[in-house]
Amino acid sequence: MALRRLEHHCIPGGWFANLWGRIVPNAARSARRLDCRRKPGNHVRSVSDYRCFGWLSVALVVGYFLVGWWPFAFRPLNQVRWLPDRAGLDFADDGIAHDFEALPDSGKPRVAGQPANYTVELWVEAGVKPATDVFHLLTLHDGQLPSPFALCQWRQAIILRAATRDPRSARRIHEVGVDGALEERRVRLITVTGSGAGTDFYLDGMRVGHFPEFVLDPEVLAGRMILGNSPAGKHSWVGRFFGLALYSRALEATEIAQHHAAWTRGLAPQFVNDPGLRALYVFDEGRGQRAEDRSRNRHWLTIPAIYRPFDNEFLVPPWRDMAYEGPDYRDIAVNIMGFVPFGVCLFLHRRRTASAPRFADALFVVVAGGVISLTIETIQVWLPTRASSLTDLLANTVGTLLGVLLALALRLKFTSAECGSPSPS
C-alpha cells in the first residue's frame, strides 16, 4: 500500500528483518537504524516521497466530477405520462406540470384585511417513495421562494405550507396538516378549505382536521400553478392525479360530501357552473402536452417534454436544505469523508514537490478542495436532477481540512519511525 514503508528501499534483505520482527518486536527497527547508519549516502524516504499521490489527487478530482454531475442530464425528459387505462396523469421522479400564466383573478373586489376564502380539491393516488423529504403535490408560485402556497406530502401526511396573516412579518411561511391522508396506492379525495374561521382538511368528504388560527392572505392564491413538484424542481411527488378543482370560496361540508360522490362516479365536469370555480381539471385528454381547464376561465396546464424547473437555486443555505425532521447527518458525513482522501493525497504531493512552508501548503489544499466543490455545485445549478447546496460545499471543505490534518499526522509518524528518532550528539 502507498503509506507503508518498503524496507528494500532502505537496505538489502529488509524482508528478513521484517520476518524477524514478528518474533522479536524491536529487531526490524534496530536493523533499519543500523543499516541506515552504515550507509551515510543512503536516502531515507518519507511518506510524502511517493510520486503516486499526485496522480491519486487527479483521479479523485475526476471521480468527484463524475459523481457530482451524474447522469450529466442538462435536458432530461419530463417524467409525466398520461394514464393508459383511465383519465389521469402519472407523476414519477423528476416530473412537473404547470401553467405559464398566473391563475385568473376570482373577480371579487379585494378588501384590506380580508382573509382568503378558498377550496382546493385533489383527486389523487400516492405512489411509493422513500420518506426522505417533503414532496409537493400542488404549488401556487408567485416568483419568490419559498412559495406562498403549497400542498405537500410527508410520509402519509398531507401538509399545507402557506403565508399566514402574521403582522410581525410580511411573508412568514407556516404549516399545518393531517396524518394518514396519503396511503400508498389508495385513491383519495383531499379537500382543503380556508376562510376567516381557519383551515379545514377533508378526506373523502369527511372533515379530519380544523385549524382555527391558520388564516391566509388572499394574495397567496394569485400565483402560477405547479403540479407534482416545487418551483426549484427538487421535491418531486410520485403518484397519480385524477382531478383538481380550485374555488374562490370555502365550500360547505354538505357540498364537499356531494363533490366526493361526483368525483368517484366520474361526474366532476358538472361542476363547471358552480359559483366561485376558478379551475377544474379532469385530465381526460389522454395524450398531448396540455390539460384543459374545464372552468369558464379556460386556463391550460402544460406538460413539457423536457424537465425544466421554474427557478434554478444556487447554493441553497443549510436551513432550507435540511430534511423535514432535521439535518441529514448521513449525507453530511458522506460529503465530509469523501474529500478526506483528496486532502491527504494533495497535501503529501505538495510537500514532495513544493518548497512552500507547511502552513502555505495546507492552506493551498483546503482552498483547492473548496474550489473543486464550488465548481461542482455551480454546474449542478444547470442540472435539473441535481441540487446546488451550500451544505455540501461546507462539508467538502471540512473534509479536505481533515485530510490535511491526517496527512500531517501520517507524515510525522512515518518520518520519525523510518530510522528512529535522531540520537543526541
Distance between the termini: 35 Å
Biggest sheet overview: 8 strands, antiparallel
Give the overall shape: elongated
Instruction: Please report the number of helical segments.
Output: 8
Which stretches of 5+ consecutive residues score pLDDT under 50? 1-44, 421-425
Q: Based on the coordinates given, report the CATH architecture of the largest domain.
A: Sandwich
Number of strands: 16
N-to-C SSE series? HHHEEEEEEEEEEEEEHEEEHHHH
State the share of residues found in helices, binned by percent. Answer: 25-40%
Gyration radius, in Å: 31 Å
Estimate the mean pLDDT confidence.
85
Percentage of residues in strands: 15-25%
CATH class of the largest domain: Mainly Beta
Total domain units: 3
The structure class reads: alpha+beta
Multimeric state: single chain
CATH topology of the largest domain: Jelly Rolls
Description:
This protein has 3 domains: about 1-40, no CATH class; about 45-75 and about 310-425, no CATH class; about 80-305, Jelly Rolls. It contains 8 helices and 16 strands. It has helices spanning about 15-20, 25-40, 50-70, 255-265, 320, 330-355, 360-380, 390-420, and strands spanning about 80, 90, 95-100, 120-125, 135-140, 150-155, 155-165, 175-180, 185-195, 200-205, 205-210, 225, 240-245, 275-280, 290, 300. Strands 1, 2, 4, 9, 10, 11, 13 and 14 form an 8-stranded antiparallel β-sheet that branches. A 6-stranded antiparallel β-sheet has the order 3-12-5-6-7-8, with no helix packed on it. Strands 15-16 form a two-stranded antiparallel ribbon. A hairpin with a 7-residue loop joins strand 5 (about 135-140) and strand 6. The longest helix is centred in the C-terminal third of the chain and has 29 residues, at about 390-420. The chain is elongated. Mean pLDDT is about 85; it is low at about 1-45 and about 420-425.
